[in-house]
Amino acid sequence: SAVISQKPSRDICQRGTSLTIQCQVDSQVTMMFWYRQQPGQSLTLIATANQGSEATYESGFVIDKFPISRPNLTFSTLTVSNMSPEDSSIYLCSVRGLAVEQYFGPGTRLTVT
Amino acid sequence: DAKTTQPPSMDCAEGRAANLPCNHSTISGNEYVYWYRQIHSQGPQYIIHGLKNNETNEMASLIITEDRKSSTLILPHATLRDTAVYYCIVRVAEDSGGSNYKLTFGKGTLLTVNP
């Protein structure tokens, strides 16, 4: 299994600012994903981040709001830009390698005031 | 996308088997059934997956009906630490090879294991 760490684990930010969340994996993986989990809700896929190509965003999510970087096979970042209180959520990094299982990080709990 | 239906909540006594049902009547022939769980304040944890045959690992057993329209996740001896939201997911294949699939989460079942 892959061990995934995220930084920060939680943050409180003011509206209008941006936060970059880091995701580090202990092994090289083919695909990395970013999910959002709003309070009391299930997980929603934001985008798929692939090394060497631009991220693929799901319906309702745009690059200007959630820019993603994937500089190598073990690291990715998600930026939440121009934040509003509606962006208060848990943001989760997820990875999948050659195996069929998909692993999730511990999440970053973001509160926007 | 094949959708899943799960009861919103279930209770189970500690030490007893927990049987979590999932309906996926529109599943396609090449779609897998995955189960994940999310313990409070943690990221989802992979449990098990299957295509047609029943599967068992150290965590649980997965029973898939012959017509593949439903499945049951079985935790043989539930403990208090098994209290979590359990998600039944039908894998969405992005290409014919199935290597670029996405996992789409529904609302899941909140399993509460009681002492």
Q: Summed up, what is this model?
A:
The complex is a heterodimer of chains A (113) and B (115). Chain A contains no helices and eleven strands. Chain A is mostly beta strands and 113 residues long.
Structure characterization notes:
The complex is a heterodimer of chains A (113) and B (115). Chain A is an all-beta fold and 113 residues long. Chain A is 0% helix and 51% strand. In chain A, a hairpin with a 6-residue loop joins β9 and β10. Chain B is built from no helices and 9 strands. Chain B has a 5-stranded mixed beta sheet with strand order 1-9-8-3-4, with no helix packed on it. In chain B, strands 2-7-6-5 form a 4-stranded antiparallel beta sheet, with no helix packed on it. The radius of gyration of chain B is 14 Å and the shape is globular. The chains are: A mainly beta (113), B mainly beta (115). Chains A and B meet through β4, β5 and β10 of A and β4 of B.
Shape of chain B: globular
Continuous helix count of chain B: 0
pLDDT < 50 runs, ≥5 residues of chain A: none
Shape by Cα distribution of chain A: globular
Tally of separate helices of chain A: 0
Structural class of chain B: mainly beta
Oligomer state equals heterodimer
| Element order of chain A: H for helix, E for strand | EEEEEEEEEEE
Mean pLDDT of chain B: 90
Whole-angstrom Rg of chain B: 14 Å
| Strand residues, percent of chain B | 35-45%
Summarize the biggest pleated sheet of chain A.
7 strands, mixed
Amount of helix of chain B: under 10%
Q: Unreliable segments of chain B (pLDDT under 50, ≥5 consecutive)?
A: none
Strand share of the residues of chain A?
Answer: over 45%
- Strand elements of chain B, count: 9
Helix content of chain A: under 10%
> What is the largest interface, and how many residues per chain?
A-B, 20 and 17 residues
